[in-house]
Amino acid sequence: MPPAATFSSFSALMRRPPPPARRLLVPPAAARAHSTAGASRARGGLPRFHSPSLPLSKGEVVRIQGDEFWHMTRVLRLGINDRVELFDGAGGLVEGSIQKVDKNGSDVELLENARLIAPQGIQWHVFAAFGTLKGGRADWLIEKCTELGASSVTPLLTERCHTIAENRVDRLQRLVLAAVKQCQRVHDMSLKPPIQIHDLPLAVSQSKLAFLASAEAPPVLSVLPKCSSEEESGLLIIGPEGDFTEEEVKVLKAAGAVPVGLGPCRLRVETATISLLSALMLWSDAAQHQETQRQRG
Prior knowledge:
Layout: H1 10-13, E1 24-26, H2 28-44, E2 48-50, E3 61-64, H3 66-75, E4 83-87, E5 92-101, E6 106-110, E7 115-117, E8 123-128, H4 137-148, E9 152-157, H5 166-182, E10 190-191, E11 195-196, H6 200-205, E12 210-213, H7 220-223, E13 233-238, H8 246-255, E14 258-260, H9 269-296
Parallel strand pairs: 1-7, 2-4, 8-9, 8-13, 9-10, 9-11, 12-13, 12-14
Antiparallel strand pairs: 3-6, 4-5, 5-6, 5-7
């Protein structure tokens, strides 16, 4: 199992690598329009494939191998001169054309300069104690967090959920990539190493937005603050089957986590995670839209 992470600061925990200097950067103000246009075009059919790195300039060539090559040539049966989109999971996106196919891979020539799409809105980081879930429930949690737009998911180790199998983490990584491609994201969702719950309060104390799913707490929509364009990230925390212990809740609340309720019914871990993430994504997206409209007006 990967070692539990100890975080020296919240900013270090959520750090993103700096964008390449030469790649065309699409600023946040334009990213929404670009994303909508890209999604519309995707429905019409340019298939998208992942490449760990992308060249910067029109005319350069990318080699596609492994599972992506298999999907490109054996599943979709694409060949010479077929057009595709490539993304690197860090915001890079480019259109290309297949120029060569052999038994080991295919060469795709870039038809334009690569673009770098800036992240949009608040980046939500999920901390959920799902290590004990069985029967595909953890798979479903990870897949839906990816589709909804979570920036990262961190398995949370607690008194009642104290482990997660290493082979499960490997499988979940593969699920993330499949879900990223399916929902047309250009930024990967990061599946982080598990952490112990006693390492979480520091990150909570350094975040202005930290929400703790808790029974009998006020409804989530009644406690959401007025969203500020200055807020770049937030946390949501979901306990294990059997919930957090009273001491764990006490420590998280003392660090600044805001307890929120998710309705009158008792929810499973994966249901609570998706319910809270959905509410927060819709809230922050609406606030971002209002801010954009205000700036245009």
